[in-house]
Design goal:
Blueprint: H1 3-6, H2 11-33, H3 41-61
Helix pairs in contact: 2-3
Length: 62
């Protein structure tokens, strides 16, 4: 996910997307703890996506 794609979305869409990513982060962390995660880079990607979404939300509030 790129920031360019996010800055075109509205605030409600960004909040919904962040909610989905946080649920995904929870499931990825659970898979990591139970040794079911096949790609450990997925955890980093999800965390970075959440950070990008937060950046886009704060840019809208300015």
């Amino acid at each position: 996910m790129k920031y360019i794609d996010l800055k075109e979305k509205s605030a409600s869409e960004l909040l919904e997307l962040r909610k989905e990513k946080k649920v995904l982060l929870f499931t990825v962390k659970q898979k990591l703890k139970t040794m079911q995660l096949t790609n450990p880079n997925e955890l980093r990607e999800v965390r970075r996506d959440i950070a990008r979404i937060n950046t886009a939300i704060s840019a809208l509030n300015k």
